[in-house]
Amino acid sequence: MANQPLDPTRIPAHVAIIMDGNGRWAKARHLPRVAGHKQGMEVVKTITKAASRLGVKVLTLYAFSTENWKRPTSEVSYLMRLPVDFFGTFMPELIAENVRVQVMGELDALPAKTLKAAEDAMTDTAQNTGMILNFALNYGARDELVQAARTMAHEAKSGQLDPDQIDAQVVADHLMTRHLGALADPDLLIRSSGEERLSNFLLWQLAYSELVFTDTYWPDFTGAVLERCIAEYQARDRRFGGL
Ligand SMILES: Cc1cc(N2CCCCCC2)n2ncc(-c3ccc(F)cc3)c2n1
After folding, report:
1. Does ligand 1 have an atom closer than 6 angstroms to the CB of 201?
2. In testing the pocket of ligand 1, which one of 37, 42, 48, 85 has its CB within 8 Å of the most ligand atoms?
């Protein structure tokens, strides 16, 4: 991993993070899995402020995937309370940091209290003009692509969309990241805990992203680890398919 000082002129505009390793962190400490999730949420607060102060414009965090419903009921119930706890304890700091909250995923399937916490946070921070904190909650990239294809098919069938006009931008405009506009595609994807998989995350948007993997478990992730990942990103020479 690169250890150069960061170039403040080349901070990645959009950073996405798969926050992995919470259960293993807890197991290594003979704690229940939910202790890893609890500490992981505190790290979300730390990294939100660190990314904002570095000049990141969009921070997308994979909080809960469509596959996570398979976990034990007690763990899912705990996880569904975390968005409520997060905003209940961190909203004043989000406002002070001028952060705007976005939440994307199949939100209608969330428990009512979870959905309300997310919707209230989006409303209460809508006027903020700083970093966008974009949570992926009950999100799956394949579901996102299926939904986009179904919507475009219905629009074509109704005469609203000429199939021959469908290009990459039209597809992007039908994805859950459409509200991010030109910032929709992450420049940098970070995955913690040593796993090197995409796990059904942002499959369209990550087409040209730099992928950085760190062995650090998410609950141990710090601002210094974030800076090392960004230094690794800055040490790479992105070609976007060119020479
Ligand atoms: C389900 C879940 C799990 C969750 N973990 C903590 C971070 C590590 C990953 C698993 C556990 N965190 N952390 C923050 C949120 C959150 C999500 C949406 C939102 F609008 C506000 C906060 C969260 N949500």
Report:
1. no
2. 37
